[in-house]
Design a protein that fits this description.
mainly beta, single chain
Length: about 190
């Protein structure tokens, strides 16, 4: 397999679901749980200023203005490091992906920002740190660190030395569904 193809496939395998379950489906619908490269059959496109592949250590590093897209999923960072398990017999078993520097992960109206994101394949977690902020439309949750447990359907937001902050917008309701009709409508 060519280096470029292998490096691209490595990112695709990064967060491929380990198994199908209701909890895993729910986790994938959460803010970061939905950001699963490899769960789509759409091609993965990666661009960066430089690509370095260390054959001996089984590490691929993309540097400079890294952009990864798959369908409507997007990841941007300064660097993206893909590590493979050196002990795995197939030698292509993913260990982790680390995005560093102005990390932004997005899909549709949802996006997350932070200084660092780690996708740990064995633990099936995504850890967004260094002033992590999750956005879903008008909703926003901020903390020093966010841990998403992909197969458990849960997330933990930690404030570190500061408190966790959340802004939750109430759902939009039209006047008729809430019973708040205008005076003109009541007069009919």
């Amino acid at each position: 397999m060519s280096v470029a193809l292998w490096a691209t496939a490595s990112v695709a395998a990064a967060t491929e679901p380990a198994g199908k379950s209701g909890a895993a489906d729910w986790a994938r619908s959460g803010l970061l749980g939905d950001f699963s490269l490899g769960s789509s059959r759409a091609p993965i496109r990666i661009s960066a200023d430089m690509l370095e592949f260390d054959y001996k250590r089984r590490v691929v590093v993309y540097r400079g203005g890294v952009e990864v897209t798959q369908g409507d999923l997007m990841l941007r960072s300064t660097t993206l490091t893909v590590r493979f398990d050196e002990r795995a017999p197939e030698r292509e078993k993913l260990k982790e992906i680390v995005a560093e520097g102005e990390v932004r992960i997005g899909k549709g109206t949802r996006f997350a920002t932070g200084g660092r994101a780690v996708f740990d394949q064995a633990a099936r977690t995504v850890v967004l740190s260094q002033d992590a902020v999750l956005h879903d439309g008008e909703n926003r949750v901020a903390g020093q660190r966010v841990v998403v447990f992909l197969d458990e359907g849960r997330s933990v937001v930690e404030g570190g030395d500061e408190r966790v902050h959340a802004v939750l917008a109430p759902p939009a309701h039209d006047d008729q569904s809430t019973g708040n009709s205008s005076g003109a409508e009541r007069a009919k």
